[in-house]
Amino acid sequence: VSYKQKKYFIERDIKRRFDNAAFAFNKNDFIYRHCSNELIERLKPISIQSKNILDLGSATCVMNKYFINSYKGCNLINLDLSHKTLKIAKKNQKFSSNVFGLQANAYKIPLKANSMDIVFSNMLLPWINDIDALFHEVRRILKNNGLFIFSTLGPKSFVTLTQAWEKEDEYKHINPLFHADEITTALHKSGLLDAVLDVDYLNITYQNIAKLYRDITAMGARNCMRDRVPSLIGKNKFNRVINKLRNNTQDRIEINLQIIFGHAWSIARSNTNQEYYLDISQIKKRQ
């Protein structure tokens, strides 16, 4: 069973964890901001006139300043499942008259069809059960020739952490993550075409386990899966996992991330055969 065909996550738990993490998010958001900055670099060369922009899964709205300065006079909508992150963002970002916060489910975006010029999504996909449904909703709200640009973690992320837990029990401790080819297929099926994907790798060294888990917790990225361990993890088991992760010479913990960046366009359907076409040569991976 592929990830997109099974409901791995419990939505109420995701909302609760991000609500709880909201106040500390901006202090421990290195990964999130790194990917935001990388998406900005990929967005800069793209020429598009944009009046309406949606930041899908906006968290504390760190992209507001860039969008407001780069797309003068645009209407910017920040959508997130967590009310608390939007509340903090409104306080810190000082929303203007054309910047809006919207608490909603990404599968049911309360916006009109063909209304958005750009949909921007940073690190939302790791929390999505059904990317087919998500991408169809993105396609629905995008205008023809509108842009969808996103980042997500790939399945080669947290390999050492996954292996360490697998030696301890049979439960899932790391969120399942979509492969690039699954993402490409789902984009194609939804009508988001001319897809370009590239892959980066990021290794992060932590001085101690407390900092690692502060980062993970601040991002709300604690286990929200249905088949997670049904009870509290014992201290001895937890310490054994940590010892497996430590660098024997420096006593540090190294975490590896595979980051997938991509964009695609909402190109109108053919009037003749209602088919989509994707040039595979346009899908690029960068090591």
Automatic annotation (TrEMBL):
SUPFAM superfamilies referenced in this protein's UniProt entry, alphabetically: S-adenosyl-L-methionine-dependent methyltransferases
Start and end residues of each Methyltransferase type domain: 54-150
Gene3D superfamilies referenced in this protein's UniProt entry, alphabetically: Vaccinia Virus protein VP39
Keywords: Methyltransferase, Transferase
GO MF, one example: S-adenosylmethionine-dependent methyltransferase activity
Stretches that traverse the bilayer: none
Any one of the GO BP annotations: methylation
Keyword Transferase: yes
Pfam families: Methyltransf_11
Keyword Methyltransferase: yes
PANTHER family recorded: ARGININE-HYDROXYLASE NDUFAF5, MITOCHONDRIAL (PTHR13090:SF1)
Name listed for the protein in its UniProt record: Methyltransferase type 11 domain-containing protein
Origin organism lineage: unclassified sequences, metagenomes, ecological metagenomes
